[in-house]
Design brief:
This is Pyrroline-5-carboxylate reductase. Helix content is 57%, strand content 13%. The protein is of the alpha/beta class. The chain has an 8-stranded mixed sheet, with helices on both faces. α4 crosses α5 (103-110), α7 crosses α12 (250-274) and α8 packs across α9 (199-219). The structure holds NADP nicotinamide-adenine-dinucleotide phosphate. NADP nicotinamide-adenine-dinucleotide phosphate binds next to α1 and α4.
């Protein structure tokens, strides 16, 4: 991997995951910088990863090829405004992982024609199995596309979006998606216990089944619907369960749930835009 300098503004969970992933991918720790106001957190990052740490955002961002905004969405406008002159002068790429913040808002706070990639990762990024959607504004150069891609790939898979408004669908699908699977696990575990299994056994069987099914689906060229059909013999045990799901109209429930999440993502985006 190249030795481009990447500066993180905010050294919390998401920054820590990206830093860990980038180092495993071979990015030199000396080319990674972090600005973090909390002294203890800052020192821990330096000790654990050997990255350069700073108290001031502007010092961390100085000369960086990419500046990753990894603070909470409510802090982004203030952070972006403070760095705007420096980023424009340097021509750095700005990558924002803040949920809901639109690239046009960022461009406004950064004060002009700045190269911006908006990223929407999800929490499995914390264990390097994230799914991240990326959107680049028109100012992003090809080598900056590549830098954004290799950076976010350090914590999982990435997909590029051609239209930013697809971010609401992404938020509904993969952003909130881990919670839907946790909910399913919760339901299966408690149903297993209701059938007489102890909690530990029900939990292990549920989690390993989830992992096994995900691996099979990823490794197979078949659609999940076909994989399901193959393990559902007419009149068998799986068919008995699927009949119950169908009677409750599970597919329609999922469609409604994701629609609600996408609507909420859009409304939150509006709110974040309006507060400024
Ligand atoms: N965690 C995820 O899985 C995930 C998934 C998708 C998107 N994201 C996005 O990633 C961003 C970061 O999330 P996170 O979970 O990493 O949050 P986090 O753990 O709270 O990290 C944010 C860090 O930034 C620091 N900070 C606050 N104000 C700052 C400032 N003005 N300048 C520099 N640093 C500042 C915070 O310090 P203090 O605690 O002292 O304020 C904290 O250490 C959010 O915008 C979130 O929407 C996260």
């Amino acid at each position: 991997m190249s030795e481009q300098v990447i500066a993180f503004i905010g050294g919390g969970n998401m920054a820590r995951s990206l830093i860990g992933g980038l180092i495993i991918d071979g990015h030199p720790p000396a080319a990674l910088r972090v600005a973090e106001p909390d002294t203890e957190r800052r020192e821990r990052l330096a000790e654990e990863f050997g990255v350069q740490v700073f108290e001031e955002n502007a010092t961390a961002a100085r000369g960086a090829d990419a500046v990753i905004l990894a603070v909470k969405p409510a802090m982004i406008s203030a952070v972006a405004r403070d760095l705007s002159q420096q980023i424009q002068a340097q021509g750095s790429l700005v990558i924002s992982v803040a949920a809901g913040i639109r690239s046009r808002s960022l461009a406004e706070w950064l004060g002009g024609d700045v190269a911006i990639v908006r990223a929407m990762p999800n929490t499995p990024a914390l264990v390097r199995t994230g799914s991240t959607a990326l959107f680049a504004n028109a100012a992003v150069a090809p080598e900056q596309h590549e830098l954004a891609e290799t950076t976010m790939r350090a914590v999982g898979i990435i997909v590029w979006l051609t239209q930013e408004d697809q971010m609401d669908a992404v938020t509904a699908l993969s952003g909130s998606g881990p919670a839907y699977f946790f909910y399913t696990m919760e339901a299966m575990q408690s149903a297993g216990q209701a059938l007489g299994l102890d909690a530990k056994t029900a939990r292990l069987l549920t989690l390993e089944t989830a992992l096994g099914a995900a691996r099979m689906a990823l490794e197979s060229s078949e659609e999940p619907a076909e994989l399901r059909r193959r393990v559902t013999s007419p009149g068998g045990t799986t068919a008995a369960a699927i009949d119950e799901f169908d009677q409750a109209n599970l597919l329609a429930i999922y469609a409604r749930a994701l629609e609600a999440a996408a609507k909420r993502a859009h409304a939150l985006g509006d709110e974040l835009e309006e507060t400024e």
